[in-house]
User: Which sequence fits this backbone?
């Protein structure tokens, strides 16, 4: 029996890598001495999804006395790995490519394509990673870990900053406007991210680093507004530190000439 890189509902069962598990009983399984030693999702970085499809690479490395024949990795969101109750799944889009390290070890590369339109906004955050390996030989030794590790799947964010007036005089009031928006997977648009703390930063001309001037909260539509007194030439920007469901993001800087 060959591991198939699919996670699907077939005749009331969840098929994980060709090992049929009853949907209500999907759990860790282990036969023989097959072991998973490492799983990497998206190069170890958060998966940040906007409104377009995105290809994601995952790898599973392991060992078996007779070598590794096949492997799989998938991401799932829910209380348990039960196909009928899952709130989200990112499963392999094609068969894996397993590269032999030595007689016993191999790394299998899996590719999935995330379709934001098929995800719920409420699932942004921490997902579980299920991984499995199949050893070579008739014994069909294998291992499946339904919660081998976790990975974050986040809603992409955008941030803008616009300082005015430009140019301005010393002591005059500068207004820095902007907006914090993030991807709405269900509508495939970007919408305001409300009530979030955002830092206004300034870097004087010739300086090497930004300093935080003040912190403001995004409005009902994600809008931002802060005022400061002009003193020297420099660049303003907004910085959002991220949340449990969206990543950190920094706006482009806007230079103000103070005369």
Assistant:
């Amino acid at each position: 029996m060959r591991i198939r890189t699919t996670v699907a509902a077939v005749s009331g069962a969840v098929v994980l890598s060709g090992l049929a598990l009853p949907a209500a009983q999907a759990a860790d399984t282990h036969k023989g001495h097959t072991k998973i030693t490492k799983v990497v999702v998206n190069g170890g970085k958060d998966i940040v999804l906007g409104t377009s499809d995105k290809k994601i690479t995952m790898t599973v490395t392991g060992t078996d006395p007779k070598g590794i024949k096949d492997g799989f990795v998938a991401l799932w969101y829910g209380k348990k790995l039960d196909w009928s109750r899952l709130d989200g799944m990112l499963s392999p889009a094609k068969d894996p490519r397993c590269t032999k390290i030595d007689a016993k070890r191999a790394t299998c590369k899996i590719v999935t394509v995330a379709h934001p339109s098929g995800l719920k906004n409420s699932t942004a955050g921490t997902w579980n990673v299920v991984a499995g390996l199949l050893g070579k030989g008739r014994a069909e030794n294998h291992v499946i870990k339904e919660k081998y590790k976790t990975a974050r799947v986040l809603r992409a964010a955008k941030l803008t900053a616009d300082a005015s007036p430009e140019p301005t005089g010393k002591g005059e009031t500068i207004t820095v406007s902007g907006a914090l928006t993030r991807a709405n997977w269900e509508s495939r648009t970007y919408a305001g991210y409300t009530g979030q703390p955002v830092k206004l930063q300034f870097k004087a001309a010739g300086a090497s680093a930004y300093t935080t001037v003040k912190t403001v909260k995004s409005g009902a539509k994600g809008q931002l507004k802060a005022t400061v007194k002009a003193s020297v030439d420099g660049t303003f920007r907004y910085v959002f530190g991220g949340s449990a469901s969206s990543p950190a993001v920094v706006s482009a800087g806007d230079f103000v000439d103070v005369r």
Observations:
- DSSP finds no helices and 22 strands in the chain.
